[in-house]
């Protein structure tokens, strides 16, 4: 199956292959033709399944055949539950919008920052990727109109409901024109998703992609009981003592990922962060440096790590435990692939111990917890790696 066979033009089919899609993913095989045909779509697929490209590519192709709406009238609205996901989705639109015969401007809008620059950048915007709260802020400021909306995309709809955005979403739905195409993507089905489906979608094409079960049998798991303030020293201790290479470290927030990288670099380790606030170019460079061995440690958030394909990844470290046992299994499953052995290490604080028991129960695997309270993490090993990183390692976050 090729992208051309799905109905994409030569331009977009070529763009897909040039950006790492050798062939269409299952969600793309089913979603792209349906979206190009103007049908509503309900897609059930995990993050990292290729679903973002499955709606970005056909939406941009549709826009090529339409005249731009009046200024500040949005043609395509994508709602995302978090800033990180909104940034990632916006970057995908921008990547596939390069060199289009008819240029299409995309803007990503989220809260926590000044609204004024976003209001200014709405000039000429056709595709708006936004979190629900900030979208309502923009509407209240009369910075834009949804009256000419052609396509609504709800990305990670289950997370939006779980994060308490139901009221905001209902207010947004009331602002939308009756005639539009609706695309709803979710990782799970449930009563909440069913209710939105009934309200928004008209005779939708239903696509359900079941993710493969992670095989954890080849993965050796260890866990260390450690106080929060000793996590950094423990991480450096383990990497240095065992001379670990190509280590993927998971944190639960962008701030923590940046903080961990800062401290690793300060101690002479070669590390970069991978998260939603990095540009697509920075994320691509970080992953390339990691795969090539130019850096030893990649510190990532869950959203940024979805879909990572790193052959023979030897070690994964859960610096912070994820909230969901499914996310834990997904993290651990990044190693031990293609018949190779792997290792997963988890840091567990006293406050995490009950949650870690729940994770083990869901995983169906017991992991022994080793106490590190009497370990000398600061002085047992001299700073063997405390040298400046090689000059050829460019930090892609610095322009």
Descriptive notes:
The chain is of the alpha/beta class and 399 residues long. The strands form 2 sheets. Strands 3-4-2-5-6-1-7 form a 7-stranded parallel sheet, sandwiched between helices. It has 15 helices and 14 strands. Helix content is 37%, strand content 16%. The two termini are 39 Å apart. It folds into 2 domains: 4-208, P-loop containing nucleotide triphosphate hydrolases (Rossmann fold); 219-371, 3-Layer(aba) Sandwich (Rossmann fold).
Roughly what percent helix?
A: 25-40%
Q: What is the CA-atom radius of gyration, in angstroms?
A: 22 Å
Distance between the termini: 39 Å
Biggest sheet features:
7 strands, parallel
* CATH C-level label of the largest domain: Alpha Beta
% residues in beta strands: 15-25%
**What is the approximate shape?**
globular
Biggest sheet strand line-up: 3-4-2-5-6-1-7
Order of helices and strands: HHEHEHEHEHEHHEHEEHEHEHEHEHEHE
How many structurally independent domains?
A: 2
CATH architecture of the largest domain: 3-Layer(aba) Sandwich
State the helix count. 15
The stretches of 5 or more residues where confidence is low (pLDDT under 50) are: 380-399
Total E-strand runs: 14
State mean pLDDT (0 to 100 scale).
87
CATH superfamily of the largest domain: P-loop containing nucleotide triphosphate hydrolases
CATH level-3 fold name of the largest domain: Rossmann fold
